[in-house]
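Q: Convert this sequence to structure tokens.
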Amino acid sequence: MFVQERQKKIIDLLEENGRVLVRDLSMRFSVTEDCIRKDLAALEKNSLLKRVYGGAVTERINTHQLKAEQRKDTNVAQKKIIAKKALELIKTGDTIFLDISTVNVELARLLLNKKIKVNVITNMIDIMNLLAAHKYAEMTFIGGTLDFAGDGFIGGLANGLIDKLHFDAAFMGAVGIDIHKNAVYTYKPEDGLTKKKAVDSADKAYILAENEKFMRSGNFLYASLNDFIAVVTEKPLSRQAAKKIKEYRIKNL
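A:
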């Protein structure tokens, strides 16, 4: 087996399991442990994994990009594709929750151009401002404690109001998703607790996330993957990731 082929298989195993061990790889490929360590070193140099004692784990990034304003101009093409897919999940007469998420800003823009009667509930200021001009949408804005960086309201007051509401569907953002830990992350605990309230108040909850979010982490785990019925991405997940999320009985749209 060529070196490149072996290293490709190592990455496939890592994506599937989240962790690989030098000893197991040595036996699997019938090469020395020193040879495997060299493979891992080469892959780490290309930022494809992170070496740990006895093996390697997936390389995950925490961007600490806290301000919504900083995220609005990133991955715009991908967000538009995700928003278009999400729009198809909304039916006339639905009551939907749009979370603090720059993908949801794109979804709100699409709703403006669609003549569909819908009840929109949101805690994000940008979404409120956009949909104030929607002739067919009934808008409810969730107040609370201003999260200036997130451009919306979170905290106890917001949570208390969400507790009293019911959504046909909630469209949620995430700063990171770890399929091996069954974890969906945001940055702040207060934001995470508000997000979880929205998920719990919805008949159907969807994660709207670019594929790269599957290699990113946040600071607060606000939900498990099996709290959602689907994750909406701009393109299909890798074969390994798609296989893994099926274990949580959720779809990739």
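The CA atoms of residues 229 and 250 lie 5 Å apart.
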